[in-house]
């Protein structure tokens, strides 16, 4: 029912008060507490001020808006009253021409150009590639008993899959790119982006330079061909009639973004899920039973007919979202829930808080049954957002789900893994949520009767 108050026109933002909260210390505001644990930071203030509060973090006044309605309001505001906010350090490392930096029409156009490669239907062609790469890597993992750390091994696999998506059949220098990506990623999230040769940020810039030099050569070699193969780089190089081709700098920036966005996220999701499965043998067993009937070669249809796979992946990413959040900035004074948020303020999108909030009973429990059947918990918009939302929703979400499903089926069907005792499983949060040990496993095959694939 609409009350008379609901029917009155909304108050203009300038007449409204700022959200409650504090600005903390001069210059640094409340950044240190925020960086220690963004979830503890937000929960403490939510108890004190409610679901809308202000603070000062990462060099800017900020409005924290919590709860499912706020999440939807933020996603709906892209290009209207909000835009993406990146720190100057990230801007320099990502490059100005990639999708994540573009705004408005340019952003829409670039997404349109890339979208065909990321539709669910076009995943059909990737399934055999992902299956063959995953089988080959898992086989290698079994050859390292007693000396196996999951994180770097998963990184190699996911990176190779991302290279196949982007460069198709072309051979690219994987060890070179992986080496430089590691240094580059470390700098991307450095809280002190100081450009000196011995700082994390300085080393990241040097790695960016090396990668750009290499990727420029790859692009130049491709541009010299008369026909482009049907891979992602081919799409970036081909333009429809009457359209300006993308500059080489824009293509290189895009390749770099896709390589980055396309591997560390899946590494985080899969590695943490394997850890949770090792800690929950009953769930692992249920997973093994769910995939028992799936025979290779794997297909999209087989995966679709096995909803428990999605339940496992979703609950893994709900419990530990690979990306804990993102930042937006207000482009004008705007009103939310009776408060004014001035132009230029940061508005964090907290994926972690959306997944941990009151909408999820016992949020810290790993329980894939939440995503089963008609369970109402999963139906509320704004409460499960591992891939973000709105016009900037993850471009690679279908690719990621298919990639992780293939890996998961093969792992559940053919392998067993146990945690090596005594390792440090305390989580570090930056750049991605990762146990300090990197997850040391005893990893082995459980269907010894099957012949391992030969190395290429
Ligand atoms: C488990 C895996 C993944 C997770 C959890 C994830 C999560 C996200 C999130 C939360 C965003 C939105 C950030 C924002 O709102 O600012 C995003 C954006 C993006 N993701 Fe993913 N991602 C994953 C895998 C991938 C893969 C495999 C690719 C590509 C191969 C990819 C490419 C991108 C791109 C290009 C964007 C920027 C979209 C834009 O600005 O329009 N992601 N991702």
Automatic annotation (TrEMBL):
Region Disordered, annotated ranges: 1-22
Named from the GO MF annotations, one term is: heme binding
Q: Where is the composition biased (Pro residues)?
A: 7-20
Enumerate the UniProt keywords alphabetically: Heme, Iron, Metal-binding, Monooxygenase, Oxidoreductase
Say yes or no: keyword Nucleotide-binding present: no
- One Pfam family in the UniProt entry: p450
Q: Could you give a single Gene Ontology term from the biological process aspect? A: sterol metabolic process
Which co-factor is required?
A: heme
Question: Where along the chain is heme bound?
Answer: 394
PANTHER family per record: CYTOCHROME P450 26 (PTHR24286), P450, PUTATIVE (EUROFUNG)-RELATED (PTHR24286:SF384)
Belongs to which family? Answer: Belongs to the cytochrome P450 family.
What name does UniProt use for this protein?
Cytochrome P450
